[in-house]
Amino acid sequence: MKSIKYIFLILLVLGGLFSCSDDILDDINKNPNSPTDVPISLLLPHAIMNTIHGVSGNGAGTYASFFVEHATNVHLNQRLPENVSTTAWNRIYNNLNDLQTIIGKGSEGGSEEGQFTAVGIAKILYAYTLSVGTDLFGDMPHSEALQGSLNRTPAFDDQQTIYTYLQQLLDQAIADLDKPSVGSIQRFDLIFDGNAGMWKKTAYALKARLYNRLSGVDPAGSARDALDALSSAYASPQEGWIFDGYLSGNTNDNPWTNWQKREQTFAVGKATVDLMRSLADGNAAPDPRAERWFTRINGEFVGAPSGQAQSDLTHSIYSAPSTQTVLYDEAPQPMITYDEMKFIEAEANLRLGNRAAANAAYEEAVKEAMRRASVSSEGISAYTRQATVFPGENALALEHIIEQKYLSFWMFQSLEAFNDYRRTGIPEMQNPQGTPLRLPYPVAEVNRNPNTPSEINNVTIYEIPVWWAQH
Questions:
Q1: The domain containing residue 232 runs over which residues?
Q2: Are 240 and 338 contacting, i.e. CB atoms less than 8 angstroms apart?
Q3: pTM of the entire predicted model
């Protein structure tokens, strides 16, 4: 028994001699490869890419191509709205969390106080990310969200409240971008190289887009607000939010391209091909974008019918997006373009009865959209001479504007085409299974959060529109 006591005492002494201080123990418990505090210089480019690739591209954006029938799924597996809900939801909230961190760090009292250019950019990206979320799902947790374990069951904010917040946040972003900023973020801004002026124009462009989204809620007011924002948005075709940094390979390539390479899932939607044909006056001048964008099947453009297409992994039955001009690794991803601004200008003026201004903006929008698609001047002239394309100010209708805007969005801006379709019903969709009006909430959110709206499910997403589409 004594020997055991002596051994115990010796161990206590040795333990005292070789024990670590609290500081050393703290250091031992830290993983140097998993930092808990990341500087803005690392967070900002990460958040920019998450916004472009994760929120707008891979997931919600690619699935929206099917919803709006820009493309048709010809893979063996179905692509249903519930298949993408969890991915879209998680990417939106993960990105919002990172952007909230940047805003907190760079604002007054933050650990990197004074980085107002970064803060302004983060607020624009936050507004964009949250707008994608609420446009897809409707009501969402926001005012009580992003608190981690402090609140695991946040309340859902109604979409109208979120839309008010989005405009307020963009106003804050513009104010932040006007402030003197500490340091330079040129190397960390993957879009405009730290150009605060271009980010301000992007904020105004997003404001115009969001105001115009409310065309069915407040037709005249939304038109006036959109036109006011447009006066400070992109002023030429050389300006716009277009990401042109994807690389060759399977890691950093365009997300639509990556999915096509892996699964050969995209064929050209029949609705898109049919619309192009309907706008060709006697087929005398077919849309020259079809030749650039689509492959031919036995000399013809063959669209795949949504909801009933055959599997076609070899793309021998239906036309596919070109791997040379559309789905190639380095394909740029447009987020907001100058021609979209002109389409919004045309629509807003048409709602206000300003037909001459509407027609002028519409015609410029069509021409610039075709130039962005690398159509020749001769091709543009032949196409726009058709009355089905340029009907003149007295005959110009909303259908002309939205149909051409729909084509201009093919295929990397399907989210916006999806939003336009839900608020206008243009163009006509062909899927016999119907077009979803929103995404269902993820199963995990339904099970975890009792505040999740119970009326939204895999059936009612075809019946219950989001707030701004209730007209």
A1: 40-249+331-469
A2: yes
A3: 0.92
Give tens-digit pLDDT for 277-293: 999 876 656 899 999 99
Nearest to 404 by CA among 281, 208, 231, 272: 272
Count: domains in the chain: 1
Count each helix (H run) and each strand (E run) in the chain, helices first: 18, 6
CB atoms within 10 A of CB 51: 26
pLDDT in tens, 149-206: 899 999 999 999 999 999 999 999 999 999 999 989 999 999 999 999 999 999 999 9
In three-state secondary structure terms, 456 is: coil
Strand, helix or coil for residue 371:
helix
SS3 of the chain: helix, strand, coil, percent, to 5: 55, 5, 40
How many angstroms separate the CA atoms of 436 and 454, rounded? 17
Residue 326 located in a structural domain: no
Tokens of 55: 């929120």
In the structure encoding, which two tokens stand for residue 341, read together? 């601004």
Residue 410, domain CATH: 1.25.40.390
